[in-house]
Design goal:
The chain has about 400 residues and is of the alpha/beta class. It folds into two domains: about 230 residues, Crotonobetainyl-coa:carnitine coa-transferase, domain 1 (Rossmann fold, 3-Layer(aba) Sandwich); about 90 residues, formyl-coa transferase, domain 3 (2-Layer Sandwich). About 40% of the residues lie in helices and about 15% in strands. It has 19 helices and eleven strands. Strands 3-2-1-4-5-6 form a six-stranded parallel sheet, with helices on both faces. It has a three-stranded antiparallel sheet with strand order 7-8-9, with helices on one face. A two-stranded antiparallel sheet has the order 10-11. The longest helix is centred in the middle third of the chain and has 24 residues. The radius of gyration is 26 Å and the shape is elongated. It starts with 14 loop residues before the first strand and ends with a helix.
């Protein structure tokens, strides 16, 4: 199999068979593809990845932004893994790659006879990575899991719940999916490094539940040791008014990150035109400001509302007070700091021309990441991949006639 024109990135030369669908698995493989690996996405010959049909409300482009984000750089082949011919072809492909990644519900890979033990005779050095929901052990190991369940079971939804409010779920970014995908990509690269030293492949697994517990490592450890319970504070009653969110003119919001409240308090008040608050002995210490937080925030809110956000950002920055705009997605698209660091990249799409996406925010000094390609059409690379694998056109035609591809 070829490297499909890619010649950059620290994982150049690594070949991956990607059996994953939806988000947690595809996000791990898109990260690996960004780093130079050749990722061959193996899809069902009739339905493909169901994420292909996931369209944003009001979308007019006809292109799934969800699927594009999770599958750029990849090549797509279609394969019927339930057929003998399709399974044998998969074995043939697996013999020539470094990594196989799947996120089937636990037990499905075994039923299809494409689990780690099934592939070892064909490729003893294979890295076999699984993205699971609640982990491989325990009473709920076989349960299908989506992002909302990973956040719920791990305690994240409760930890992010404002006091007195109902539990809410924000579907903007798939926190459990994305986090588990990041950890799975890390697990794969670590296994590849271990293979370089030992010559042996291995099986690795990351679950959504485990990933979300890991993300809360500090808070949960504090609970296990000292009984700590997370408690979101309301904006109008913060422990530290210099570590809070405020609304400026025109409905623009600003975040102030003065964690060392005593250090910043006087300059903070002076900038806001409230020197009397900065010098008032009733508000001199962090403890005093915590006890009077509601009245302070009420006064601060009035002052913030009189300023343009950009003006305050400049003044706070000049005074050394940590601060940031509270960006909308529209703000992100033009944020000069984001653009200066190339966090938004340009990709050529066959139907839309140049599109913009969020790139991998990692810089490699000697193995820079190469240009990205758009997500593939369903099965667009089937023949090319099979030819590279050593099949001839007659064999490919016979497999198509059998419904194996």
């Amino acid at each position: 199999m070829s490297d499909s024109g890619k010649s950059a990135g620290p994982l150049y030369g690594i070949k991956i068979l990607d059996l994953t669908i939806w988000q947690s698995g595809p996000f791990s493989t898109v990260m690996l593809s960004d780093m130079g690996a050749e990722v061959i996405k193996v899809e069902d010959r009739t339905t493909g990845d169901p994420g292909r049909g996931f369209m944003d409300a009001g979308a007019t482009s006809g292109v799934s932004g969800y699927f594009e984000a999770m599958n750029r750089n990849k090549r797509s082949i279609t394969l019927d893994l339930k057929s003998d011919a399709g399974r044998e072809l998969f074995y043939r492909l697996a013999a020539k790659v470094d990594v196989v990644i799947q996120n089937f519900r636990f037990g499905v890979a075994e039923k299809l006879k494409i689990a780690y033990p099934d592939l070892l005779p064909h490729n003893p050095k294979i890295i076999y990575a699984s993205a699971t929901g609640f982990g491989r052990e325990g009473p709920d190991a076989t349960m299908g899991v989506f992002d909302i369940l990973g956040q719920a079971r791990s305690g994240v939804l409760q930890a992010l719940r404002p006091p007195g409010d109902p539990v809410e779920y924000n579907n903007a970014f798939g926190l459990a999916d994305q986090t588990s995908g990041i950890l799975l990509a890390q697990a794969v690269t670590a296994a590849l490094f271990a293979r370089e030293r030992s010559g042996e492949g291995q099986e690795v697994e990351v679950s959504q539940l485990g990933a979300m517990l890991c993300l809360q490592q500090m808070g949960i450890t504090r609970h296990l040791i000292n009984g700590y319970e997370p408690a979101m504070t309301r904006r109008d009653a913060p422990r530290n008014p210099v570590f809070n969110l405020y609304e400026c003119q025109s409905g623009d919001w600003i975040a102030v990150g003065g964690l060392q409240g005593d250090r910043y308090w006087k300059d903070f008040c002076d900038i806001l035109g409230l020197p009397e608050l900065g010098s008032d002995p009733r508000y001199a210490t962090m403890q005093q400001r915590t006890e009077t937080n509601r009245e302070l925030v009420a006064a601060l809110d009035k002052s913030f509302a009189a300023f343009a956000r950009a003006d305050l950002l400049d003044k706070f920055a000049a005074a050394g007070i940590p601060c940031s705009s509270v960006n909308s997605y529209a703000d992100i698209a033009s944020d000069p700091q984001i653009l200066a660091n190339d966090y938004i990249i340009q990709v050529e799409h066959p139907h839309m021309g140049t599109i913009r996406e969020i790139g991998l925010p990692i810089r490699f000094g000697k193995t820079p990441i190469g240009p990205c390609t758009s997500a593939p059409e369903l099965g667009q690379d089937t023949e090319a991949v099979l030819l590279e694998c050593g099949l001839n056109w007659d064999e490919i035609s016979a497999l198509r006639d059998q419904g194996a591809i």
